[in-house]
């Protein structure tokens, strides 16, 4: 197992249990105690946990894991991305993508299709799409959020103000019928709102763990969302509330 996978697994176990032990992690992850100790030191330096004698405990609140450690639900996110790609029909000539693991999966699918203009504020998506001859890529500029690799803030907002897109795909941290779509960071939320306003149609990509949940900052109300694509783990009652609010729901 690579170190990045171990770090993600450690954070996942910590989120579930609140504490972990060095020996328990070494056994569960089939690696050495010395490697686990180095992993815990690395995560503590990033302020993602607090080491204790013989293990580690969760910091008081972990609101958002950095993108590089969000490795869970890969199969679900791939299926959501595949369902989202079907919305990029021949009549769609321009799309917008914000940052996130699911929008990154979608970007990789779009890269091998036909000629398409893509606007993004995500550095990792821009890096993936830049060499693709079929993609006419536009990157917003802005201040960098290391947690999500996104460019946000006034520079990004101004870049988005003057454009019009056929379709925007938004990854979010929460969606529910009353609270709308939300994310962890207020500056990111404003930039996502600016991206949303460029589009004729807005498609939200959210795995089941985010449906019925609210994060700190509101991106937009549910009336601004045309479609949500999720997976079968999403609570059925929450999906019914979204449908009742006029949102098309696709379960990948």
Description of the molecule:
It comes from Lentzea flaviverrucosa. This is Transcriptional regulator, DeoR family. GO terms for molecular function: DNA-binding transcription factor activity. The chain has nine helices and 15 strands. 37% of the residues lie in helices and 25% in strands. The chain is α/β, with parallel strands linked by helices. It folds into two domains: 3-69, Arc Repressor Mutant, subunit A (Orthogonal Bundle); 74-251, 3-Layer(aba) Sandwich (Rossmann fold), CATH 3.40.50. The model has no long low-confidence stretch (mean pLDDT 90). The longest helix is centred in the first third of the chain and has 15 residues, at 3-17. The chain has helices at 3-17, 22-28, 33-45, 74-85, 101-110, 123-129, 154-161, 186-196, 236-244; strands spanning 19-21, 50-52, 55-57, 94-97, 116-120, 135-139, 143-145, 150-152, 165-171, 174-176, 180-183, 199-205, 217-220, 227-230, 248-251.
Key traits:
WH_DNA-bd_sf; 252 residues; Rossmann fold; alpha/beta; DNA-binding transcription factor activity; single chain; transcription regulation; Transcriptional regulator, DeoR family
């Amino acid at each position: 197992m690579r170190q990045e996978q171990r770090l993600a697994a450690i954070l996942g176990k910590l989120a579930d249990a609140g504490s972990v032990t060095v020996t328990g992690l070494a056994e569960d992850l089939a690696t050495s105690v010395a490697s686990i100790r180095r992993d815990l030191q690395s995560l503590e330096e990033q302020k993602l946990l607090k080491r204790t004698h013989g293990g580690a405990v969760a910091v008081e609140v972990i609101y958002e894991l950095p993108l590089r450690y969000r490795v869970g639900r890969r199969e679900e996110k791939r299926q959501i991305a595949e369902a989202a790609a079907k919305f990029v029909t021949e009549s769609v000539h321009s799309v917008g993508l914000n940052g996130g693991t699911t929008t990154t999966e979608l970007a990789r699918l779009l890269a091998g299709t036909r000629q398409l203009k893509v606007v993004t504020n995500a550095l990792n998506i821009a890096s993936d799409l830049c060499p693709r001859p079929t993609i006419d890529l536009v990157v917003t500029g802005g201040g960098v959020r290391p947690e999500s690799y996104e460019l946000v803030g006034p520079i990004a907002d101004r870049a988005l103000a003057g454009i019009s897109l056929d379709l925007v795909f938004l990854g979010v941290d929460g969606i529910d019928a009353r609270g709308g779509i939300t994310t962890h960071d207020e500056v990111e939320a404003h930039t996502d709102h600016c991206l949303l306003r460029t589009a004729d149609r807005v498609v939200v990509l959210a795995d089941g763990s985010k449906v019925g949940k609210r994060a700190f900052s509101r991106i937009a109300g549910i009336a601004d969302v045309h479609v949500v694509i999720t997976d079968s783990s999403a609570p059925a009652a929450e999906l019914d509330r979204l449908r009742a609010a006029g949102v098309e729901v696709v379960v990948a």
